[in-house]
Amino acid sequence: MLREMQSEGSIHIRDVDFHGLMKKEYIALAPEQPGVLNQAERDLLDEVIQFVCDENSARSISEYSHKLPWELAEFGEVIPYESSLLLFPVETSPEAFDEVTNGVEEIERERSKGGAVVYTELKAFRDRIRAEIGAR
Amino acid sequence: LALAEYDAGVDLLVLFDEYATLNPRMAGTQHPDLPHLWLFESPSALSRLPRVVLVYTIEDDEGYATLWNLYRL
Question: What ipTM does the predicted assembly reach?
């Protein structure tokens, strides 16, 4: 794909010296085609670019990728996409504790009914959410 | 959750489901004042994800965890 973009003149690829090592740089020569990405998708790309290029190095990105999801997967097993969220350590925030403290009456009311809506398969739960909000 | 956050929200639920199935005590944090409740908060490093906290209980005798609510932070 990169070669195709290079031959049509939309990007320029060059090798540059980076602290004694060779690094490939990809330079856009043409603006993006309008209408291909929506604003949310552009925001996501910007966020990823900032995280990878500005806030990390190849080494730190490699270290991220060898955390819990990688350790949980069996050898040769496909690492589940969702487990990428485990790359980031999460400390429960004080506002989360407060929110739950404030909502405990509601939770206890439901618990006392013994009426948990039981879905043994997450797919059934997801399908219900999709149906209720009319998601694609 | 808003429709725009639906996919991210589902990713979060799938993650929680897998994580809690593996080890519900590892998946979250026990509430210090309400020790029967456990909290799973979405990773704040990713702005794509809605900031939410999931509340669940661990039923050791039955061998499962029950998700009770989701709060928007």
Answer: 0.82
**Which residue, among B20, B19, B4, B61, has the nearest Cα to A83 in the 3D structure?**
B19
Chain A residues contacting B, CB < 8 Å?
Answer: 40, 44, 47, 72, 80-83, 85-86, 88, 90-93, 95-97, 99-101, 103-104, 106-107, 110-111, 116, 122, 125-126, 129-130, 133-135
Q: Is B65 exposed, middle or buried (0-12, 13-18, 19+ CB in 10 A)?
A: buried
Of A135, A119, A71, residue with least CA distance to B14: A119
**pTM (2 d.p.):** 0.63
pLDDT tens per residue, range B24-66: 888 889 999 999 999 998 876 666 677 889 999 998 888 888 8
